[in-house]
Amino acid sequence: QVQLVESGGGLVQAGDSARLSCAASGFTFNLYAMGWFRQVPGKEREFVAGISGISGTLYSDSVKGRFTIGRDNIKNTVYLQMNSLKPDDTAVYHCAARIRAITTEHWTWNYWGKGTLVTVSS
Question: Is 56 within 8 Å of 69 (Cβ atoms)?
């Protein structure tokens, strides 16, 4: 029923840009905050960016000024524009949905996509 499907991952060079997209279905999209989390082996899933139903945003300090999150409530999509990519940005990026407010705690989010791998070469 609920589906979050990420796309746009791949291999990029340090300093370059990439755009991730997430197509959502099966819930009332505009009532949910949407977010991106990332995870690397041996580390806890990390908050990257979130956007509320009315497009307020919150960013991790590690990506602020480089990444931009946006949403389209007509197309039921959320995106993450990633600029000035660094090798430390390499991770599996997961799209997530949460009723009402944005939080940084991954365990409080309701729905999750399977993820898309972003690899940044040095």
Answer: no
Q: Where are the beta strands (DSSP E) in the chain?
A: 3-7, 10-13, 18-25, 32-39, 46-51, 57-59, 67-72, 77-82, 91-99, 111-112, 116-121
pLDDT tens, 33-74?
999 999 999 999 999 999 999 999 999 999 999 999 999 999
pLDDT at position 2 is 98
Tell me the two tokens of residue 22.
């997430």
Q: Give the bridge partners for 19, in sequence order.
A: 81
51, 110 in Cβ contact below 8 A? no
Distances in Å between the alpha carbon of 63 and those of 58, 67, 75, 81, 98? 10, 6, 26, 11, 21
Note the pLDDT tens digit of each residue in 84-122: 999 999 999 999 999 999 999 999 999 999 999 999 999
How far apart are alpha carbons 109 and 6 in whole angstroms?
16
CA 91 to chain centre: 11
Residue whose pair of structure tokens reads 């060079």 in the numeric block: 13
